[in-house]
Amino acid sequence: MNHRNRESRRPSIESLCVLSKIFSLAVDAELLDDNPCRRVKKLRTANQRVRYLTNGEEAALFKALKGQDWVKDIIVLAINTGMRRGEIFDLKWFDVDFNRRIVHVRQSKSGRPRTIPLNATAQTLPKGLPKTSEYVFPSPKNEKRRVNDVGRQFERAVKSAKIMNFHFHDLRHTAATRMADAGADPFTLAAILGHSDIRMTARYTHATDQAKRRAVDNLVKLASDSDASEPDYQQLKAVESPAVANNFEVFGNGLAPEMKTARSASP
Fold first, then answer.
1. 105 and 116 Cβ atoms separated by less than 8 Å
2. Which helix (H) or strand (E) segment is 103 a member of?
3. CB-based burial of residue 191 (10 Å sphere; 0-12 exposed, 13-18 middle, 19+ buried)?
4. pLDDT in tens, 51-98
5. Is 8 strand, coil or helix?
6. What is each CA distance from 16 to 26, 34, 120, in whole angstroms?
């Protein structure tokens, strides 16, 4: 199936999801007995996008965000925690535990709360922010409310930095890919990212060329270690030489009477 056909499926699937939600609400209100959308076979779509930010692109993006520190801070936290946009916007100071170096995500897409460890960069970031609101990132227009969106500022910076095909959610992919490349296993990634299905996380474990190269380079290391543990061939040949063999035979003949005497003397 070509790319155009896959993309044409997406609006149909999204419409089905909305319609199914409407019917589910009607069932909850006892207006209907059943949700007919449940009997509709859902079409599969390719939802395996893994676009991550390179180091060069990251530097260019931050350069393009000069003068917009609050947007930059949100991006830094996204890259260093893998949090979703809404999770970052909902973050309150009450959710940040500096002593344990963690943040609590109380409202997530999966519906289950989780904790995320803070690395050195993510831990330093909130400490430098003013606590003028209960939200870590309040709205620039009304500090009593959380920030609503950074889409316009983000998209403008991405365009200015000449970064192609990159969305805000790809910052989450960037965090996951970098953690996987550093050796994080899928189960750890799933716990950090809040994935309910380990298959959603497995795609990050083979996303970078560096990880693949490190894996095949380890084959050379294993081969070298194996060669080092093998007995030296020349030493084996020396043991097999006639002179050494004759010495072993003489030693054995001399030892035989002693062994015979020891056996006869034993009870």
1. yes
2. strand 102-105
3. middle
4. 899 999 999 999 999 989 999 999 999 999 999 999 999 999 999 999
5. helix
6. 15, 15, 44
Q: Kind of pairing, strands 102-105 and 96-97? A: antiparallel
Assigned token pair, 57:
């692109």
How many other CB atoms sit within 10 Å of the CB of residue 205? 18
Q: Is 166 left (phi over 0), alpha (psi -120 to 50) or beta?
A: beta
Asked whether the whole model's pTM tops 0.85, one would answer no
Spatial separation of the C-alpha atoms in residues 137 and 23, rounded to whole Å: 36
Q: Are 75 and 65 in contact (CB under 8 A)?
A: yes
Cβ-Cβ contacts under 8 Å for 146 (sequence gap 6 or more): 89, 90, 135, 137, 138, 139
Distance CA 79, CA 85 (A): 11
**Range 40-73 burial, b when 16+ CB lie within 10 A, else e:** eeeeeeeeeeebbbeeebbebbeebbeebeebbb
